[in-house]
């Protein structure tokens, strides 16, 4: 073949490649044009996951071919497991649904601590909006409490500090729980709060004396804790070195007594390096998955997005799908010995206690998905799942939409506003 012919052949091949790529992009754009995308948040409005997602929803569409409309849907419950199950096993696999849930879900599923009907490692991972570069997961206590430093959480002359949390399996529960077992922190965890906003409100109200929460989340959603010195920072986790803003605050790794303890804390903290993960279900067509992954990275690097994030006190340090994949692989590569000890500790977590509230039904919404009663003079709400909440009326199994105002119902649930385990009603 002459040089001229080789050049023509190469050019033709290049044109074919460009043409195929353009056709692929056009195909993705044609699909998303006029569509509505949903971003699922596994927690209630107002918390850190919700803040990141609502910010993303305002910027990401311009980087997705076809520029679909994006809406945010909160799906709280069970430490974000309900949202994860929806994304992983029920959501359309066409690229119109993505979302975020607790970063420790893959690890907890791998260990059998959480049982879900899909493999989270096979989801269509987009990346994380925070690689924890400028972050820390803090243990905090009210400043009017007797806990002035991490040493006070080991002091047997003091009562165990009460922490608020959503549920076992969430980072806000598992971080303080494992540290209590491994390094002897005296922490009593009260779970059942629907989201971080409600858990933080429990600290404000004095129902709890402290909690574990991300630094950016505190800065974004509870800035008064820092400005008005409402809480004291006791410990920073998810840090190999101390955060530059908190050079005098010890890290969780510094509390380890030996290499075995350090290995457990390292495993506990690994999910923090994919701090704000986003994923869609497995099976999204490859061209759309690639487009979503590219749009995710472009959004994270968008100066307008990053600028708005900084104003909200968020850590914007995006991690792409490949980087997140390496973290997931590192979890899989953990030694069996460390996994076994970690699992044994987490298996000892007590179940979330349930409470019962009884009262007359004063309102129902969304075909019975939200039921409101008056209990001791206060209006309280329960979320009612079509598959996970047992609903009975006059002792007989019933659909949630059959619950009507005027009935007397008993909610069995972790706390007001959370998903009910059962709703028992009488006409």
Domains (count): 3
Mean pLDDT: 92
Q: Give helix % range.
A: 25-40%
Name of the CATH class of the largest domain: Alpha Beta
- CATH architecture title of the largest domain: 3-Layer(aba) Sandwich
Biggest sheet, in brief? 7 strands, mixed
The largest beta-sheet arranges its strands as 14-13-12-17-18-15-16
Outline, from the CA principal axes?
A: globular
- Uncertain segments are none
Structural class: alpha+beta
What do we call the CATH homologous superfamily of the largest domain? Bordetella uptake gene, domain 1
General description of the model:
With 427 residues, the protein is of the alpha+beta class. The chain has three domains: 191 residues, 3-Layer(aba) Sandwich (D-Maltodextrin-Binding Protein, domain 2); 135 residues, 3-Layer(aba) Sandwich (D-Maltodextrin-Binding Protein, domain 2); 72 residues, OB fold (Dihydrolipoamide Acetyltransferase, E2P). The protein contains 13 helices and 18 strands. A seven-stranded mixed sheet has the order 14-13-12-17-18-15-16, with no helix packed on it. A three-stranded parallel sheet has the order 2-1-3, sandwiched between helices. A hairpin with a 2-residue loop joins strand 13 and strand 14. Helix 5 runs antiparallel to helix 9 and helix 9 packs across helix 13. The protein is globular. The N and C termini lie far apart (89 Å).
